[in-house]
Amino acid sequence: MNVTELKAENGAAGVIQPSAALGDVKYEIRGQLANRADELEKRGYEIISLNIGNPGLFGFRTPETMRLAMIENLGQAEPYCHQKGIFPAREAVVMQQQSRGIQHVSAEEVFIGNGVSELIDLSLRALLNPGDEVLVPSPDYPLWSAAVVLNGGVPRYYDCRPGSKFMPDPQQIEELISARTKAIVVINPNNPSGAVYDRGTLEGIAAIAAKKGVIVLADEIYDQMVYDDAEFIPFATLVRDAVCLTYSGLSKVYRACGYRVGWCVFGGDLDRARDYIHGMELLAALRLCSNVPGQWAVQTALGGFQSIRELVQPGGRLYQSRQCIIDRVAGSPYLSMEAPMGAMYAFIKLHDRFAGKLGDQRFALELLDNRHVLVAPGSSFNTAYSDHFRITSLPDPDTLNIVFDRIDDVLVQHA
Questions:
Q1: Distance (Å, rounded) from C-alpha 120 to C-alpha 329?
Q2: In this structure, which long-range contacts are made by residues 93-99, counting pairs with CB atoms below 8 Å and at least 24 apart in sequence?
Q3: What is the architecture of the domain spanning 75-303?
Q4: Between these two residues, 376 and 240, which has the higher pLDDT value?
Q5: How far apart are the first and last CA of the chain?
Q6: 292: CB partners within 8 A, 6+ apart
Q7: Cβ neighbours of residue 239 under 8 Å, at least 6 residues apart?
Q8: In the chain, which end has fewer C-beta atoms inside a 10 angstrom radius, N or C?
Q9: Could you say which architecture CATH assigns to the domain 20-60+313-412?
């Protein structure tokens, strides 16, 4: 058999096809535009990358006490640990939960993972059967949609509309629930919009979860990043007759993205969740354990001085950068937005004059190619509209002023 015959027998030149499930997965935050930015950097251009909330890239350091705690315990970090994580880290999470008024939680209900990303995947894998539905906000953090799809589920979107300050409507959420609905995802403070949900909205979702018997998956990684008079309300404090999983970690509030340490806490009606927890234990055991050195920073992080509070108050770095974005958007004839009340992003709208002429993908590509600024198109956050883009508010105000000058340079060409 010659080479031509062998290729014919093995299919189209032996091309290996990826899983069909990937066709419904997108993560443009690190997608084609980011790859294009890498190409430009290799050609010598300096790119201002605002597509990812990565504090370490913008001069934010992990608190020194956390680094020391990790270094001092390196000798204990060489073996595998328990699949749920080291006890001091899990107990620190319990203490934080209790300080927030969340009772009846022990270290047995806490899982430590390689960032929240891994725990989202594990918790959905332990929960979903093929065709099960998960209600996800639109806009969402696209990892949620991707993880639902990759674990055999179907994401169904509830609207967090710009005209409603990106707040969800509990009534719409209830109307979307079907016999196949297993969970409701709540991202608060929200990425990408920066919305911080009020008590009434959260109580409404909690009541629906109890009534319909669905689980709430509460992504609260930005829990202490709130501005002005915004109040963060832990979802687990509102849950009694439903099951709630709370996700958080070291990446954002503690500026330790590279440590890859997140946690997931079961709360609410734990008796209903026992089999689910056992399923999570099995999956956690199959990956042996999460990164051990970083876990030794958790107790110090949660129990020590909370430096994030200074950063989000007037005069603090994050506050001042957010204010710069608010001021520049307000002064631009081409842009508008709802002021972000939490997290480290701004979700900015292109003026209606660009409708039909300049969508978010084309704008992002022109801004990158012509002015060397990388942003994330709004439609990559699973929206039905394509006139928004997201930037991180991590750069200092001087850098952000340069960014907005370049944005205006691009938009004036289409105005």
A1: 34
A2: 93/263, 93/265, 93/298, 93/302, 94/265, 95/302, 95/303, 96/302, 97/234, 97/236, 97/246, 97/265, 97/267
A3: 3-Layer(aba) Sandwich (3.40)
A4: 376
A5: 63
A6: 76, 77, 78, 79, 80, 81, 86
A7: 206, 209, 210, 216, 267, 268, 269
A8: N
A9: Alpha-Beta Complex (3.90)
